[in-house]
């Protein structure tokens, strides 16, 4: 058996565990595809080929010795370069951090993926310090959209979107503070899971906004997304926000029917400022699920505003000393936003956190009568690299400020979301499947049902 | 002509020992204007005095 690029993680793991494909061959195939296409995509900032081959050989040796292997045996994966990878400085998309000493230990999620048999093949490009929705990076160059390489991959986990969208690896990990998993998923036409806040450990990853930082997986199918997510669950004392809940595996549940679920469209704010393609994508998903009711999420615009304020101020706090000592080593656009963030009066930040509790209570009430909310992931398909404005209903709007308008009010209170790709022509676009806290299983179930119906799918990369 | 926020930017820059070079000032000011406009939207929303901040989801 050969490791073709369209093999899913589940296919690879099954073939490797069954002795039909070696972990080394699966790894070499991913490394070869990276060599072939990353010159164009610019998804990778580091390729850990030696480490990957050693890990793959160890898995093959275990199989030869008759030992049990994990559910991701031989599956190549890569991580946004804000995850610690032993031996590499954790650059987090910055120039400044590459002066740090190399990480001594992998991030918890890297350890858990490898404990399940996955093989780390490298670290991925990202927007500087994750303060980005475009996937562009002034130091490393932009990661590019695999369906049209003149377009954005989406940020800030742009390399993750580009690598999985381009089928260089079946699984990647990224982070999502305000939309940084869901936006690249949408632009690159892949599945992404932003779990409930606190569900997956952030230990040994570089932070951005402690209140909102989440880590999660990208994949080309719901099965692969659930496999990766399940492999990474579990408490971790090294992340103060990580839940002490036990494991709640989703893989056995994703094929359960969705007919008993109460599914509604998010109305009002979530139906404004959207291009026709976002409307079409939401409409296809809603129709397939038989969702006709529309629910208003109260004060969503204010939630987005509060998320903005908390992000810019917590980000400023994180980087204050670097802003003093090395201001000229930042991307100027990031620097100037962070300096402004440092100047927002403290009472306004406190009010934003208080508003957050109010908003959370409203959503908790809403989820008593609804199981799933459907909303656009992005207002548009991938814009051109460097694009500054787009024209919506005759109004010129700034691209960067508007890409995340539909994701921010959701991550603001940590709700779990699966971003599902609707394969429109000429470019795909994502839809958010939003569930109540800790109900990733429900969001994944709905995503799986849509995939089975053929409504959502990760299209083959058209730009390669 | 000085913009309305310039005195404030100068004062906070000094208080925090945070440099703002002249070339950066227009972008810093523009970003601060956006942050304050959005913060005002939150500020306008009346909340009970007893409301506590919600830093994380409680388990």
Question: Could you explain how this protein is built, in words?
Answer:
Chain B: Pfam families: AtzG-like. Chain B: It comes from Bradyrhizobium cosmicum. Chain B: InterPro entries: AtzG-like. Chain B: This is DUF4089 domain-containing protein. The complex is a heterodimer of chains A (464) and B (59). With 464 residues, chain A is an alpha/beta fold. Chain A is built from 14 helices and 13 strands. Chain A has one domain (9-302, 345-452): Amidase signature (AS) domain (Amidase signature (AS) enzymes). In chain A, 37% of the residues lie in helices and 14% in strands. In chain A, the strands form two sheets. In chain A, strands 1-3-2-4-6-5-12-13-9-7-8 form an eleven-stranded mixed beta sheet, sandwiched between helices. In chain A, strands 10-11 form a two-stranded antiparallel sheet. The two termini of chain A are 24 Å apart. Chain B has a domain at 1-34. Chain B is 49% helix and 0% strand. Chain B is built from two helices and no strands. At the A-B interface, helix 9, helix 10 and helix 11 of A face helix 1 and helix 2 of B.
